[in-house]
């Protein structure tokens, strides 16, 4: 029977993607400690999750009013630790949980990214994943020494080359290149370690790469692009895709369209897993879950939405009145997460929405309240999505840390297991094993490139 995949949606910061989560009376506040993240890791592994994954940005939200003071005062995702270092702390207390992190193709160098993630893969015995992002706002550009952010599609053009370089470096060592024979004094076979010598439009990289292959061959590739260009990038490269489908019917259509895009790239659609975002609020009973939801719903502030919209769309929402429509030029000029812009237009039916329309139509800063209940109620909704052909699994977001993860593992995971929808134990050691993906082999991605 087809098995559901579960991903823990994490942030190495003072809150989850829900900026108000730190305000909850039950959320831990020691987010600067290893213990905070290690408890989350233990909970996710006890629930047999495929992986925990860190979303990341390279700046705090300071686009609203071109000022960071409100971000600090209200705790709006202002603390951002390095996710890779944090993952090593989580990997030290787990043995099966996959470990995923974001790294930007716009502001990092491919050799560095290749080395960091392949090292993590070796140290975790084949549990690493790289979430490929292009970054999205001027704050990140300024922090990384750039005058302005690259145009949306150009960032993806550079990202294509970046991925080619990273994959090329990960292919440098043949599986049996290491010999390590003290008797003969021969450490390795030099003919089985290859230079890359990549020269592209944006990037050059020579090699040879310095990190041998891992138990799963190479890290898993994650992507979450939701614009048209982003989806094409995902269809070309990703092995696990994060999406935010909004209902089963439209999710099923988007899922089918994306899988067709994967096939059009000459890839096996079944080898690319699609997980949609969910924020389940669960408890032992429906009534208890509804009480939890009422408290969670009371925590977000208006400034959360305004700040996070400004950050994500790379547009200062303080520059407009609440009921002032965006001009055609402003709408066309949005270079951040264009999928949010497009969703607001669709949800409001307005070609030129106002600031208030953006707040309501995007739901930014507020938890969705469409998955609240006891074990049966939440499992029913997850099963409807999964068996209805709208996804291969779920990215589980938290409203309370670590309580949301603990509640899900305690109440919902056993119900999913009882229904035969989710594993009762890990079947293998590597992240590729969890995802039902074959071990990566050298050059397995190159036929697609050659065909182009």
Structural class comes to: alpha/beta
> Per the principal axes of the C-alpha atoms, what is the gross shape?
globular
| Alpha carbon gap, first and last residue | 36 Å
Q: Which oligomerization state do the chains in this entry correspond to?
A: single chain
Q: Radius of gyration over alpha carbons?
A: 22 Å
The largest beta-sheet arranges its strands as 1-2-3-4-9-10-11-14
Q: What do the pLDDT scores average to?
A: 94
Number of strands: 14
Uncertain residue segments: none
How much helix, percentage-wise, in residues? Answer: 40-55%
Number of helices: 17
Biggest sheet overview: 8 strands, parallel, barrel
Q: How much of the polypeptide forms β-strand, as a percent range?
A: 5-15%
Task: Summarize the structure in words.
With 452 residues, the chain is of the alpha/beta class. It contains 17 helices and 14 strands. The strands form four sheets. The chain has an eight-stranded parallel barrel, surrounded by four helices. Strands 5-6 form a two-stranded antiparallel sheet. Helix 8 links the parallel strand 10 and strand 11 (273-278). It starts with a strand and ends with a helix. The model has no long low-confidence stretch (mean pLDDT 94).
């Amino acid at each position: 029977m087809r098995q559901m995949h579960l991903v823990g949606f994490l942030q190495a910061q003072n809150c989850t993607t829900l900026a108000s989560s730190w305000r909850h009376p039950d959320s831990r506040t020691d987010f600067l400690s290893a213990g905070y993240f290690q408890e989350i890791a233990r909970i996710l592994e006890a629930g047999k999750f495929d992986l925990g994954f860190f979303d990341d940005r390279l700046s705090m939200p300071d686009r609203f009013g071109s000022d960071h003071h409100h971000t600090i005062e209200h705790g709006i995702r202002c603390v951002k630790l390095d996710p890779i270092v944090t993952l090593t702390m989580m990997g030290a207390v787990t043995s099966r949980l996959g470990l995923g992190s974001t790294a930007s193709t716009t502001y990092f160098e491919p050799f560095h990214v290749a080395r960091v993630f392949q090292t993590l893969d070796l140290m975790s015995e084949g549990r690493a994943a790289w979430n490929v992002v292009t970054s999205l706002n001027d704050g990140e550009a300024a922090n990384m020494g750039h005058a302005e952010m690259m145009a949306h599609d150009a960032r993806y053009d550079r990202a294509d080359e970046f991925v080619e370089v990273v994959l090329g470096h990960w292919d440098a060592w043949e599986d049996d290149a290491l010999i390590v024979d003290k008797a003969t004094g021969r450490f390795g076979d030099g003919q089985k370690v290859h230079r890359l010598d990549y020269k592209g439009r944006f990037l050059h990289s020579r090699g040879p790469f310095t990190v041998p292959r891992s138990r799963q061959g190479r890290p898993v590739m994650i992507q979450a692009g939701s614009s048209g260009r982003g989806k094409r990038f995902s269809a070309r490269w990703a092995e696990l895709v994060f999406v935010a489908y909004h209902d089963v019917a439209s999710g099923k259509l988007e899922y089918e369209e994306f899988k067709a895009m994967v096939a059009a790239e000459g890839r096996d659609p079944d080898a690319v897993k699609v997980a949609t975002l969910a924020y389940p609020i669960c408890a032992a009973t429906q009534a208890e879950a509804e009480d939890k939801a009422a408290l969670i719903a009371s925590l977000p502030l208006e400034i959360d939405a305004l700040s996070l919209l400004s950050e994500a769309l790379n547009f200062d929402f303080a520059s407009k009145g609440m009921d002032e429509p965006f001009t055609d030029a402003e709408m066309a000029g949005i270079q951040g997460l264009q999928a949010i812009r497009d969703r607001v237009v669709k949800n409001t039916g307005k070609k030129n929405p106002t600031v208030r329309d953006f707040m309501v139509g995007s739901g930014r800063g507020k938890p969705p309240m469409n998955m609240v209940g006891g074990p049966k109620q939440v499992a029913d909704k997850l099963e409807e999505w999964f068996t209805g052909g709208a996804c291969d699994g779920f990215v589980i977001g938290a409203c309370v840390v670590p309580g949301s993860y603990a509640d899900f593992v305690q109440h919902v995971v056993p119900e999913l297991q009882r229904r035969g929808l989710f594993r009762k134990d890990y079947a293998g050691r590597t992240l590729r094993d969890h995802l039902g993906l074959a071990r990566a082999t050298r050059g397995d991605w190159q036929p697609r490139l050659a065909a182009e």
